[in-house]
Amino acid sequence: MTETPARTVTLVVVDDHPVVRDGLRGMFTAAPGFEVLGEAANGVDALAVVGELDPDVVLMDLRMPGGGGVAAIAELTRRGARSKVLVLTTYDTDSDTLPAIEAGATGYLLKDAPREELFAAVRAAADGRSVLSPAVASRLMTRVRTPAADPAETTLSAREREVLVLVARGTTNREIAAELFISEATVKTHLTHVFAKLGAKDRAAAVAVGYDRGILG
């Protein structure tokens, strides 16, 4: 028996194809625990809609006439928007994935992802957890580059490695603290050190670098 989620996750769907928007709206409306607040056909309109409706998650396509997704993500990040952006696109090329993550996207999925995977990704994004499809993670492994530095200054400690592994699994700071029997403040300190050592600016980028360096397998 499927349990009903404890809270409803609100969404805004951004895609230039009306059929795609209708399909996503119908899919999420029919599933328990989701509410689609609105839609937009391009990145420029998305900024206005997100600003007005303040959803938990924005499902963002990337290549759209009238305003692309990466620019919209960067602007939402600049504005300090509460909404988390989950990229949902058909493109997994190097020129698409990295800019989207660098702009501030919480996750990146391809449109051929199974329905349940998409639902889980949206819930994870709403909780602030990073989500990367296997294909995207694989591409980022070969694309992410970090500044040259003294290896002694960039090697993760055993505890920092544990924290990064848990981040890669989509674990929240609170859950990491509970699992490792440390405070959330200590988790944040470890993450700050991990970001600095890996040359990453957020959780998704740190996970990508972790895969690239073999830290995560």
Verbal overview:
This protein has 217 residues and is of the alpha/beta class. It folds into two domains: 7-143, Response regulator (Rossmann fold); 156-211, Arc Repressor Mutant, subunit A (Orthogonal Bundle). 53% of the residues lie in helices and 13% in strands. The chain contains eleven helices and six strands. It has helices spanning 18-30, 43-53, 69-79, 94-103, 115-126, 134-143, 151-154, 158-168, 173-180, 184-198, 203-212, and strands at residues 9-14, 34-40, 57-60, 84-89, 107-110, 131-132. It has a six-stranded parallel β-sheet, sandwiched between helices. The longest helix is centred in the last third of the chain and has 15 residues, at 184-198.
Task: Indicate the topology.
Blueprint: E1 9-14, H1 18-30, E2 34-40, H2 43-53, E3 57-60, H3 69-79, E4 84-89, H4 94-103, E5 107-110, H5 115-126, E6 131-132, H6 134-143, H7 151-154, H8 158-168, H9 173-180, H10 184-198, H11 203-212
Helix pairs in contact: 2-3, 3-4, 6-11, 8-10, 8-11, 9-10, 10-11
